[in-house]
Amino acid sequence: MMDCALNISSILRRAARVYPEQQIVSRLNDGSIHRYTYTDFCGRVIRLMNALRQLGVEPGDRIGTFAWNSYHHLELYYAVPAVGAILHTINIRQFSDIRAATINHAQDKLIFVDRSLANSLAEISDSIPCVQLFVAMDDLGPAPESTPQPFVQYEELLSTAPETTCFADDDERSAACLCYTSGTTGEPKGVLYSHRSVYLHAMGSCMADSFGLSERSVILPVVPMFHVNAWGLPYAALLTGARLVLPGSHTVGRPLADLMATEKVTFSAGVPTVWTLLIQHLRQHHHDLSSLNTVIVGGSALPVSLIKDYKRDYDVDLIQVWGMTETSPIGTVSRVKTGLASLDADQQLQIRGTQGLPVPGVEIRICDDDGFELPWDGETSGDLQVRGPWVASSYYGETADQSAFTNDGWFKTGDVATVSHLGYMQITDRQKDLIKSRGEWISSVALENAVVAHPDVLEAAVVSRLDDLRGEAPVVFIVLRDPGTPVKPGDVLDLLRQSFERWQIPRPSDVHTIEALPKTGVGKIDKKVLRRQLRSK
Ligand code: ADP
User: Fold this and answer.
1) Cβ-based neighbour number of residue 126 at 10 Å
2) CA of 412 to the centre of ligand 1 (A)
C-alpha cells in the first residue's frame, strides 16, 4: 500500500476541493454573524501559513492561541500544523498564574489573541518573556484597556501574505497540537497530538456509532476550542464536509438557542452544565430546535434525568462520551446496541447513563492495585486503563516520568470503573474523589447521580470530609432548581436510602444547599474548592 501521510493539510485540501460551497458560520462578540465558504477558508489558511513563515515561524515552534470558537481560531487550527509548527490552545478561563506557567512551559513563540480577551494577556505579558509577538484578532469585541506588547493585527498580516501553497507536514508522526489538562485534580499537564493521531481520532469520532457525523450534519461545538481541541470537532467537521457553526463567546441561554434555531444545527457537544443551563432557558422561552437531534456530552458524568428530559421535551438524544486530554479526547461513546433495544425505556436509560463502549481504535481494561486485569461483569470495579493510536504515551516535557503508564504500554487514567459483559464502561469515580468510609469505598458519582434525580435539585456534588469514626464521610452539596422551593436534607437522604446501604448514607448535617457549585475553567465541578471550603469551616 502507498505510504500516504495522515496529516491535517490533507483534511484541508480535500475539504476545499470536494465541498468548496460548504459554509463556516461564526458568531462574533457583538452578536453579528460571519459566514464564508470552505474555499474562502482554505485561501485564508494558505495566506496565514505564509504570514507565519514571514514572522519566522519554524517547524516545531509552539504557537499559542487565546481565543473563542471562531473562524480566526479555526484558520489557526489548520495553518499552524500545516507549516510544521505546533498549535497550543491556551485555556482562557485558567487563573492568570497557571496561564502564565502553561505558556512558559510550552515556550510559545507567538500568541494569537481575540481582541475581547487581550486584557487578560496584557496583565501577564511581563511574566511570559518567551512570547516574541502577539497577534490581535478582531472578534468585534470591546476595545481592550491594554494590549500585550509588541502586537500586530491579524488582518494586516493576511493582507500582505502571498497565496503560494507549500505544506510542510509530510511527517505524520510530527507534533501538530499541544493541549494541557484542565487541572481538575492537579497541575495542568501538556499532551502533544501528532498529525496522525488527530487524523485517526477525527475518523474514529465521525463513525456512525461514535458521533455519527456526515456532510449533512450542521455542527455547533459549545465545547471550547481551547479545551482538548473542542473534542476534535474542528477537524472532524471538515473531514466529513459538514457545516460548522462557531458560537464565539455566546455559549449559554438565548444566544445559544437562537443560533441553533437560525442555523438549523443538528449536532452539538459540551459538558453537562451547558445542557442543564440550556434546558432551564428552554423551559421558559420557546425556540425552534426541531433540527437538533444529537448532543454529545462528556467531561463529567451526564445525569440520566437530563437524558430523559431532553428526549421527552425536545426529542434530542443526549449521548454520553468519556474521554480525557490524554485520549484526544474520545475514548468511549454510549449508544444502545440493537440487541438491547427491546429493553424498556428505563433500562435503556440506565445503559445510556453509562460512559459506553470503547470506540474503534481505543482498547480499555480495568485492573486491580497489583495490575491484574479484572473481569467485565458490571460489578467489579478497578483502575481504568486505555491504549490506542490517539492515547498519549508521555507528557510534554516530562518524558522521563512514566508513572502514568504501565510497563506493557497502557495509560492509567486515574478513573475507577466497571465494565459490563457487553462492553459498557461505567465510571464509578476518579481515584482522588473516592470516599473511603470504614475501609470501604463509596462512589461520589453514584451519590451525585442519585441526588440529582430529585425533581427540585438542579446540580449536586459529593466530596469527603475527615470523620473520627468512619475515616471519611460523604458530604453533599446541592443547588436548587428554584430557590423558592427548598429541599430538606431528610428528603435527599430518603432518596439515597432507596439505592444505597446504610453506611453509605451521609448525615443530615452533611447535606448543604448552596447558591452555585464552583466550576473549573471548562465548566466541570471543582471539587478542590469544595474540599477547601469544608476544611475551613
Ligand atoms: P482534567 O483531568 O483536568 O479534568 P480532562 O478534561 O482531561 O482534564 O478530564 C478528564 C477526566 O474527566 C476523566 O479522567 C474523567 O474523570 C472525567 N470525565 C470525562 N468524561 C466523563 C464522563 N462522561 N463521565 C464521568 N467522568 C468523565
Assistant:
1) 10
2) 13
69 with 176, same domain: the answer is yes
At 235-262, the pLDDT tens digits run 999 999 999 999 999 998 999 999 999 9
Round to whole Å and give the CA distance between 242 and 235: 10
In-domain check, residue 96: yes
How far apart are the CA of 324 and the centre of ligand 1, in A? 5
Q: Do residues 40 and 177 share a domain?
A: yes
Report the number of distinct structural domains present in the chain. Answer: 3
Residues with Cβ within 8 Å of 281's Cβ and at least 6 positions away in sequence, in order, are 252, 253, 254, 257
Q: What are phi and psi of 181, to 5 degrees?
A: -65, 155
Does residue 223 sit within a domain?
A: no
Q: Indicate if 99 and 137 belong to the same structural domain.
A: yes
Q: Residue 182 belongs to what H/E stretch? A: none
The grid cell for 107 is 515556550
Atom of ligand 1 nearest to the CA of 427: 25
- Selected catalytic residue, list 123, 147, 441, 519: 441
For residues 411 and 455, state if they share a domain.
no
Catalytic residue flag (residue 326) = yes
**Residue 25 domain-assigned?**
no
Average model confidence (pLDDT) across the chain:
94
Find the domain containing 499 and state its range: 434-536
Task: Please tell me the distance between residue 328's alpha carbon and the centre of ligand 1 in angstroms.
Answer: 12
pLDDT for the residue numbered 368: 94
For residue 372, CA distances in Å to 251, 416, 424 come to 44, 14, 20
Which range is least confidently modeled, 44-48, 130-134, 203-207, 472-476?
472-476
CA distance 143 to 80: 26
Catalytic option among 181, 276, 354, 418 = 181
Pocket test for ligand 1, best of 274, 304, 415, 434 (most atoms within 8 A of CB): 415
Q: Which atom of ligand 1 is nearest to the CA of 321?
A: 23
Do 419 and 458 lie in one domain? The reply is: no
Q: How confident is the model at residue 186 (pLDDT cuts 50, 70, 90)?
A: low
* Average pLDDT estimate for 308-323: 97
Q: How far apart are CA 91 and CA 101, in angstroms?
A: 12
The CA distance from 181 to 368, in Å, is 25
456 domain residue, yes or no: yes
**Residue in 466, 474, 531, 476 with CA at minimum distance from that of residue 503:** 474
pLDDT digits (tens, 9 = 90+) for 330-355: 999 999 999 999 999 999 999 999 99
376 tagged catalytic: no
* CATH number, residue 498: 3.30.300.30
